Structure to design on (493 residues):
């Protein structure tokens, strides 16, 4: 019989409480899957202003003092459950740090005290365990915002046997976000200067929260096997951390994200005008019709609709797309975009919309309900990412019978097979090169398949019947947690 583990997942965003990207989806869904496997999985996140206490039934359970450098500040610990489940969630409340309009930044500018906000959070997570007298077997950290948890644990709590037994795993959801701050913050975040060296937290003259996590965590993983390899290779992929990751390669794993089918399922999706499943995929047409109308686009017979939902960021391949957009616009298709991000891509997209008003719909905003309708109402889903740790968009679109057109990188390479290489099993279309021409070619090939109903219908059905649920990935995480416990036992011996 497998031992039931106590797991505390620490994340700066968690669906449905606060979300800016895929991290939130993972943090909301993985603990549910762990619970189904019989483990005691709980979640901790900051209590941001947008989290409505009344709506989610938050209750105060403790007030703790959190030391940070010279100062000590209060954190209020609140608790609730992930709606519709029995997964316990802890919220670290401190209005002066988290009572703001956004998670990390406003109008493209990071909050100047982000180092304090997430150092405080990390330290509060460890202090909370004492107050609740609940010590997990493993703390599962995620990205730079929680990178200091393993650092504090080993640098400041090492003498306490209750903490010594706690293993740590850190997941890299995107290595481009590193939490790098000027060297002076080392004292503010309550760490000694001897941690400011190149073996520990120092990174090109700055303090790097992510690097700290990668040095101090017992086990490291990222969200696909291909990305785990890629980030050890070049600076472009590893963003300066490739050397450290190569050094820790025996502790570095890749586990592809699962998808929460309670959230993403066309058969039950409350945001759609019509629900459908693999046996009634023809109803997608009705969703498409409504989506075109909602987006002010004319109904055009036999024109596939390409959906794109993404942060407008260099990572996501918008430069590649921009290069061939004029040619793509000449093709018999329509295009709907949903995303926010880099102002230069806002302008680019708005210009395209002006130039091709019949073909392009551009929604420069964050809108979850519209995202659901685009996944369902589109025929093809575009992901030309330059790098992609895992990617959720391609997995969501598969479930909705919307065929992904992706670049062969990271998690996209691990989850999508090229239809033209393997028409019986593949899905169009992945490509191994970087430039626009390759993308254009992939779109053209997808169009050709779209116009051949005999091929298209089985392809859509096959996509919808794939299983990317969390159960398999959650079982892989359990194995990682066990490895982290083994690593801690090694330290103790
Ligand atoms: P990343 O985490 O790098 O942004 P992922 O593909 O892993 O990329 O996850 C992105 C998630 O955020 C998906 O669930 C996607 O649907 C959602 N998303 C991205 N942009 C928007 C937006 N503007 N409105 C609604 N949802 C969005």
């Amino acid at each position: 019989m497998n031992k039931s583990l106590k797991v505390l997942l620490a994340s700066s965003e968690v669906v449905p409480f606060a979300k800016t990207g895929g991290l939130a989806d993972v943090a909301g869904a993985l603990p549910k899957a762990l619970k189904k496997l019989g483990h005691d999985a709980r979640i901790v996140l900051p209590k941001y202003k947008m989290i409505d206490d009344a709506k989610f039934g938050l209750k105060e359970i403790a007030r703790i003092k959190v030391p940070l450098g010279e100062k000590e500040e209060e954190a209020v610990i609140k608790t609730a459950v992930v709606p519709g489940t029995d997964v316990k969630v802890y919220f670290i409340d401190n209005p002066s740090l988290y009572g703001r309009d956004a998670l990390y930044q406003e109008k493209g500018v990071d909050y100047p005290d982000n180092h304090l906000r997430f150092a405080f959070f990390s330290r509060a997570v460890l202090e909370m365990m004492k107050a609740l007298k609940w010590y997990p077997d493993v703390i599962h950290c995620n990205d730079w915002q929680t990178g200091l948890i393993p650092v504090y644990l080993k640098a400041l709590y090492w003498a306490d046997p209750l903490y010594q037994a706690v293993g740590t795993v850190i997941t890299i959801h995107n290595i481009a976000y590193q939490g790098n701050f000027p060297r002076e913050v080392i004292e503010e975040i309550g760490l000694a200067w001897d941690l400011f060296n190149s073996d520990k937290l120092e990174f090109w003259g700055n303090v790097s929260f992510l690097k700290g996590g990668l040095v101090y965590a017992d086990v490291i993983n990222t969200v696909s096997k291909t990305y785990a390899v890629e980030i050890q290779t070049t600076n472009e992929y590893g963003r300066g951390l490739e050397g450290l990751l190569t050094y820790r390669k025996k502790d570095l794993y890749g586990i592809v994200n699962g998808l929460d089918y309670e959230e993403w399922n066309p058969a039950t999706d409350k945001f759609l005008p019509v629900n459908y499943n693999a046996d009634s995929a023809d109803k997608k047409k009705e969703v498409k019709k409504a989506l075109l109308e909602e987006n002010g686009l004319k109904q055009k017979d036999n024109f596939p609709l390409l959906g794109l939902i993404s942060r407008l960021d260099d990572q996501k391949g918008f430069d590649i797309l921009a290069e061939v957009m004029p040619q793509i616009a000449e093709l018999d298709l329509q295009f709907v975009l949903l995303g926010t991000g880099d102002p230069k891509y806002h302008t680019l997209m708005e210009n395209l919309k002006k130039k091709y008003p019949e073909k392009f719909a551009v929604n420069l905003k964050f809108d979850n309900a519209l995202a659901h309708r685009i996944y369902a109402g589109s025929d093809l889903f575009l992901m030309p990412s330059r790098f992609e740790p895992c990617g959720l968009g391609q997995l969501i679109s598969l479930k909705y019978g919307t065929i992904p057109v992706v670049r062969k990188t990271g998690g996209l390479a691990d989850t999508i097979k090229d239809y033209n290489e393997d028409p019986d099993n593949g899905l169009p279309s992945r490509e191994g090169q970087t430039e626009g021409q390759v993308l254009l070619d992939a779109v053209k090939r997808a169009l050709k398949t779209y116009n051949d109903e005999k091929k298209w219908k089985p392809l859509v059905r096959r996509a919808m019947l794939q299983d990317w649920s969390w159960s398999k990935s959650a079982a892989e995480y359990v194995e990682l947690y066990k490895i982290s416990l083994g690593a801690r036992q090694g330290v103790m011996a």
